[in-house]
Amino acid sequence: MPPPSDIVKVAIEWPGANAHKHFLSAFVSSWSLSGSEQFALRYADGPQLYITEQSRGDIKNGTILRLAISPARAARQLLERIQSHGIDARLEALKELAKLSADPTFAAEFINMEGIGTLARLVESGTHFGEMLAFTLTAFLELMDHGIVSWDLISLSFIKQIAGYVNQPMVDVSILQRSLAILESMVLNSHSLYHRVAQEITVGQLIGHLQVSNQEIQTYAIALINALFLKAPEDRRQVGALNVCLYPQEMASSLAQKHLRSIILNHVIRGNRPIKAEMAHQLYVLQVLTFNLLEERMMTKMDPNDQAQRDIIFELRRIAFDGENDPTGTEKRKAMYTKDYKMLGFTNHVNPAMDFTQTPPGMLALDNMLYLAKVHQDTYIRIVLENSSREDKHECPFGRCAIELTRMLCEILQVGELPNEGCNDYHPMFFTHDRAWEEFFCVCIQLLNKTWKEMRATAEDFNKVMQVVREQITRALAMKPSSIDQLKTKLRGLNYSEILRLRQSERMSQDDFQSPPIIELRERIQPEILELIKQQRLNRLCEGSCFRKLGNRRRQEKFWFCRLSLNHKVLHYGDLDESPQGEVPFELLSDKIPVSDIKSVVTGKDCPHMKEKSALKQNKEVLELAFSVLYDPDETLNFVAPNKYEYCIWTDGLCALLGREMGSDLTRSDLDTLISMEMKLRLLDLENITIPEAPPPVPKEPSSYNFTYNYS
């Protein structure tokens, strides 16, 4: 009779005692310990968290637990020890506290005993240095991260002390790292603390920490800059490429903006190879927050009656048409303006200001157009004139394209959106130029004009062109160009013909289409391919494989060989003195298991030899290659494959023997590859022929069958 599902078998250890299998009170009595309420169970491996009523349901069969003093007792003892006079004893207590503080059960007990206030006073006293201070800050941060205590309770003297560690020119790396993390948490979790931290820490001081070689310090420094930037009031943010100044007077000059950008580029992006995931995320956050400075202009509608705004449109007209003299008459001037605005590609020829009343992109589109006209004047004039002089209906409307392109770029770069958690999609090229956004627009508008000509598009094809341009831009950004010039190179290789080729290639790799006839064909082919894969797996099992024996003495390697009989009815296996060079005869394999006796195949943590307490338990690579055959009567044959390929071959083959589904990554890959090849072969004669979504309708029955031939 199988045991109930809510009962698991575990091993419990106590330092200096043998393992037992009893209730907690039985452990305490058998080990001559008094007061079961003074003890608790913790995991022996990993984070070593306490077992609670809420978490005991997560315990798995074969888990190793450790008997430890209860969380309340541990908190009380540590609180006394960290206030002791002995330096060594205090250091050991703080070290243990830093480790235990990650446990929510212990943290709740320690906080209830006013432990956080004690740690804060130790920091404020300024008497802790080196390792002792590092462990104190680590414990403080871990305890606060549980969210039990509000950050608003932190005193100003504590903030000043932490800020002092950040502002010191020479401070221990571990102390600096934890101080930056604490300040970041203060800013993100408390509006009132933001103002206090911003008074103590300047972005200029944080820039210094970006110039060090330690990537973790750089990451925490950028994270604090991002936090200050994210929580800064709207009136304290400045518009500018990668200008993350919180107080305008601090970094108002373009020189300071350029300095920050160049530091990030040279010391963070180019100075770290490779860039770790957390650093990449912080750079992505900084990129998004920087582009969010454009949101105000993006959401600002143009006022058709605002003369200053209308003057910008007049300036665009003047630059494009070389400041031609305006006619004297009002009607003639109005007619000329209408003609010029039409050649500029605006939708509303009479009053182009109306084109900028939709948000997004609002006034941001006009800003982009003016930057192109002034900074890249030759390019601007060329685009406008070569399209305004065409009479074949293939002219590219510059104004309409610029407005729609700005909206598209805002969507691609998430302008106005908060950063996504876990996203690392930053682009190095935006850190290489003081006006990266505007330069990006200038490159893309030239791409749009070029693609329009390659497609020989007309006004009716506007949306199709924009779809192609979006694909060109997103594909180029996915290549992570390191500069604006490299972006231009990538885009030159992604012309319209290349986009068509890529689309065709991707359609073919996705079994061409998703129409019902193709899906039906795939379903008919799949069983044949699965049977082919199954036979290949079984043939490989018949050839056999060599496995390594892993015991307590891993330095003395032993080998054993296993293979399937040719009739697929018996597994033969046996020990070998050394790794074989070829196939091992059945006669040398002394042991065997009838396939009919095999009950199941288990993998990974479910394997009996992976549940044992050994060095293997901590080896993730070995864990991923382990599998076991369970057979009658309650016996197991344990495997550790030499590599992932052999693991997939054997687990698939054994599942096929048992009539179960082959679910390895290798099977999925082989299935996709073989089906794709077979589909392409069968559809070869239908290339460039549109396959209908549904079969043709059956014609109606004829009114009579007099047309049939009468053989009589």
From TrEMBL:
Q: Which Pfam families match?
A: ELMO_ARM, ELMO_CED12, PH_12
- InterPro entries the record matches: ARM-like (IPR011989), ARM-type_fold (IPR016024), ELMO_ARM (IPR024574), ELMO_dom (IPR006816), ELMO_domain-containing (IPR050868), PH-like_dom_sf (IPR011993), PH_domain (IPR001849)
Please give the biological process terms from Gene Ontology that the record holds. actin filament organization; apoptotic process; cell motility; phagocytosis
List, for all copies, the residue spans of the domain called ELMO. Answer: 308-477
| UniProtKB keywords | Apoptosis, Phagocytosis, SH3-binding
Single Gene Ontology MF annotation: SH3 domain binding
The entry's function note states: Involved in cytoskeletal rearrangements required for phagocytosis of apoptotic cells and cell motility. Acts in association with DOCK1 and CRK. Was initially proposed to be required in complex with DOCK1 to activate Rac Rho small GTPases. May enhance the guanine nucleotide exchange factor (GEF) activity of DOCK1.
Q: Which PANTHER family does the record match to this protein?
A: ENGULFMENT AND CELL MOTILITY, ENGULFMENT AND CELL MOTILITY PROTEIN 2
Q: What is this protein called?
A: Engulfment and cell motility 2
Provide the taxonomic classification. Eukaryota, Metazoa, Chordata, Craniata, Vertebrata
